[in-house]
Amino acid sequence: MARAATTSDAFNAVAEPQRRRILVLLRGRERPVNELARALRITQPRTSKHLRVLREVGLVRVRESGQQRLYGLEARGLQPVHDWVIGFEQYWNESFDRLNEYVKHLQRKEHADGSRR
Amino acid sequence: MARAATTSDAFNAVAEPQRRRILVLLRGRERPVNELARALRITQPRTSKHLRVLREVGLVRVRESGQQRLYGLEARGLQPVHDWVIGFEQYWNESFDRLNEYVKHLQRKEHADGSRR
DNA sequence: TTGATCTATTCCGATATGGGCATATATCCT
DNA sequence: AGGATATATGCCCATATCGGAATAGATCAA
Q: Which element (helix H / strand E) includes A62?
């Protein structure tokens, strides 16, 4: 086995910088492929490929409009990522380290008291 | 060029399910490699390799303790991911579409009033 | 119909991956 | 010292990328 397919889930899809930029560009309004390609300064085929990945993991939706295809953000697909990261939020406050130490300190004390009893 | 190196940033590091699980296990307390390997039911070498990736992107820190190495969470490394996803939070509420329309409506009105003045 | 425009797909090459296995390294114990 | 335990690395394979170029489709305009 090699690395998990990029099309497997939102985590993988979003690991690609260009794809993140696409999603940002799609925030607020739909855009056709060429506009995205120009904005990102990458080729049209590459853009289409990225969009396909994003589509397959449900981060984006398409709508035909004449000879263009308007891509729109499907933000709900990012929720799993959001939810997962949120679970770590409390751990990156500087103060947490100290709080953690304090809690451990209390636990040690309690433990000592307990065994003494 | 091939896919971006997994060691390049937190986004890539976290795209791997096993690595996400490692980070979850490290939430709360440090753990030696073997304990992680057992918990994840993967081989020790594989565990070490994942830990290396996590270390290189600053999501984990090591501390020697006898013949063991205790790995600890470095949650701040997840902040970029957190910050990025947060930027989409408002877009996945069902109600957003309607709210958005409403806001745009107000803006149009304000604009009209402005130019009229 | 013919030509122009917009997108998607295919083929190619270079590269990095995740996994298993064997092995090197380091530390502890007797 | 010698053995046991805990980790890290190296090597190999199969695979799945990302990127470019060319091309196939689709749709619109004259």
A: strand A60-65
CB < 8 Å from A in window 70-89 of B: 73, 75-76, 78-79, 81-82, 84-89
What's the per-residue H, E or C state across B38-59? HHHCCCHHHHHHHHHHHHHCCC
Are the C-beta atoms of residues A27 and B87 closer than 8 Å to each other? yes
Do the Cβ atoms of B32 and B38 come closer than 8 Å?
A: no
* Cα A101 to Cα A117: distance, rounded to the nearest angstrom: 24
CA(A70)–C1'(D11) in Å?
47
Q: Which of A30, A57, A79, A91 to mutate against chain B (most B CBs within 10 Å)?
A: A91
Indicate if CB(A41) is under 7 A from strand C: no
pLDDT digits (tens, 9 = 90+) for B33-68: 999 999 999 999 999 999 999 999 999 999 999 999
Task: Indicate the helix (H) or strand (E) that contains B69.
Answer: strand B68-73
Write the single-letter amino acid at A97: D
Residue B113 in this model has a pLDDT that exceeds 60: no
Residues 6+ apart with CB under 8 A from A110: none
Residues from chain B that touch A14, judged by Cβ atoms under 8 A, are: 11, 15
Nearest CA in chain A to B8: A15
